[in-house]
Structures are given as structure tokens and as C-alpha cells.
Design brief:
It contains no helices and 22 strands. It is an all-beta fold and 265 residues long. A hairpin with a 2-residue loop joins β10 and β11. The relative contact order is 0.12.
Length: 265
């Protein structure tokens, strides 16, 4: 994602601070090898197992894993009538994944005759992430999507003054937050539970991040009775690269304003 977001070298428009010019289309493509073995499982079967996967970076999109056709269990896929057209890659054909009584329509796609500017896609296919029951990067199960080698997460302690407000109500305040910077995304501020000044109510919402882990959510209960649903999240057991934020809380909701040193984020 880092290459294709806002000010990345493959974004639709370079920022004003660059001293280079890339001659080419605003919508850019880049394919490069993914350095590790990747497997996908469905209904107890390994549907793909590759050491030759590649990531395709495309402007404003998440990187997409494509694998050589020979690394796919072709016996589990049935050709579909479904097709799509991409003005940058060409016409895609689709295959349905079928194991016993479980079926995922149009789970896999490929470009048998890609456009000249994407001719390197010939012989590769891509499986929708959500089509598989489980994905493995080497022998570790991964969630949400594969990590992007051009994305990193940095967590740093800081003495910045962070306030979270709902109108005039102080929801949380800290002089010792952690700031998390993830490539291509705004800074997120993580506060200790004791910094929160209003009741929080847990919700059933869960999300997964391939860089941070599984997040739990809370709603904010304001003194006037209003409830801001899923306005707070935390990673109780984050992945190793993000362990510093374990148990810390971050706030984001249209009903909240986050001030850092008195300035709105």
C-alpha cells in the first residue's frame, strides 16, 4: 500500500516536494516477487501452495498476491462464465472453488491474454483473500491480507498532550500517550485505560490488521446519555512488531475530536 497511497511513488500524482518526474500513466502497476512461501486452505484442502508468488501494486489499491498457475490445485476449480475488464490489465476470466458441498463462486481470476503493459501477468492467477478459510505466510497463519514489504509500523512514547473531546465533554486526556505511525495512514494516539474519563462499553466488533493483530472495540457512553458506537479500539494481544500498544486505547469517531498539543488532528 505504501507505494500507491497519497505521496508514494506509484500514487496517481506525485507530491509537490519531489525532485523527479515519472513519465507514464496516472494509474500505475508494479509486480515484484513475494519472498516467502504462501499457502491457502479451504474445506481442509490446500488450494494453493507457492514459493513463487508475486505482489502486484496498483495505484490506490492494496497489493494483490498472484501465484503461478502450476501452484494452484486445478482439480478444485471450475471455469465460470463470469468475466471482467480492467483498462490497465485486460480481460479477466474467473473460476469457482468447489470442495465437496462447499462452493465459492468466482473465487479465482486470471488474465490469460493481458494488455501489453501488463504482459507479465500471463501465467499467474489470484485468489480472493476471503475465499479461503485460512492463509499462511510460511507456517504462520495471517489475517486480513499479506504484509506489504513497503509498509512499516512505528510506535513511540511521547509527552505530547492528547485530549479526546465530544463537544465540550472531555472523554480522555494524556501527557504520556503512544503515537503509532503506519505507512500511508494518519498518526494514531494510544492512551492508557486510566486516561479515560467516561464509561466505555464493550461491543462485539472485531477487526484484524496484518501488522497489529486483532482489535476489540468499545462504545463511549457520554454524560448526556449519547452513545458513540465502536469509537474506541485496542489490541489486547498485538503482534510482536506492535507489542507496545498492548492494552492501550485509541479513539476515532465522527462525534469525537482529537486534540494534540491543542491542535485538532
Amino acid at each position: 500500500m505504501a507505494l500507491t497511497r497519497a505521496d508514494g511513488p506509484l500514487s496517481a500524482a506525485a507530491p509537490a516536494t519531489v525532485n523527479y518526474r515519472i513519465d507514464g500513466p496516472a494509474h500505475k502497476l508494479l509486480m515484484h516477487p513475494f519472498p516467502r512461501r504462501v499457502r491457502a486452505e479451504f474445506a481442509g484442502r490446500t488450494v494453493l501452495d507457492t514459493r513463487g508468488g508475486v505482489l502486484v501494486h496498483e495505484t490506490n489499491l492494496l497489493p494483490r498476491l498472484y501465484v503461478p498457475e502450476e501452484d494452484i490445485d486445478q482439480t478444485l476449480f471450475v471455469p465460470s462464465d463470469h468475466t471482467t475488464h480492467c483498462p490497465f490489465k485486460g480481460d479477466a476470466t474467473y473460476r469457482t472453488l468447489r470442495v465437496d458441498d462447499r462452493v465459492v463462486e468466482n473465487a479465482l481470476w486470471a488474465y490469460p491474454d493481458p494488455l501489453p503493459d501488463a504482459k507479465w501477468l500471463a501465467g499467474y492467477a489470484s485468489l480472493y483473500w476471503e475465499a479461503a478459510d485460512a492463509w499462511f505466510d510460511e507456517d504462520e497463519q495471517v489475517f486480513a491480507h499479506l504484509t506489504d514489504p513497503y509498509t512499516r509500523v512505528d510506535v513511540r512514547p511521547t509527552s505530547r498532550h492528547v485530549q479526546v473531546l465530544a463537544g465540550d465533554t472531555l472523554v480522555a486526556e494524556s501527557h504520556h500517550p503512544l503515537v503509532l505511525n503506519e505507512t500511508g495512514l494518519p498518526a494514531r494516539w494510544y492512551l492508557a485505560p486510566e486516561d479515560v474519563r467516561v464509561p466505555l462499553e464493550p461491543t462485539a466488533t472485531r477487526t484484524r490488521c496484518p501488522y497489529k493483530g486483532e482489535a476489540s472495540y468499545w462504545s463511549v457512553r457520554l454524560p448526556d446519555g449519547r452513545e458513540l458506537t465502536d469509537a474506541v479500539w485496542s489490541y489486547p494481544e498485538p503482534l510482536p512488531e506492535s507489542t507496545r500498544i498492548a492494552g492501550r486505547l485509541s479513539f476515532l469517531h465522527e462525534g469525537l475530536t482529537v486534540l494534540v498539543d491543542g491542535e485538532p488532528e
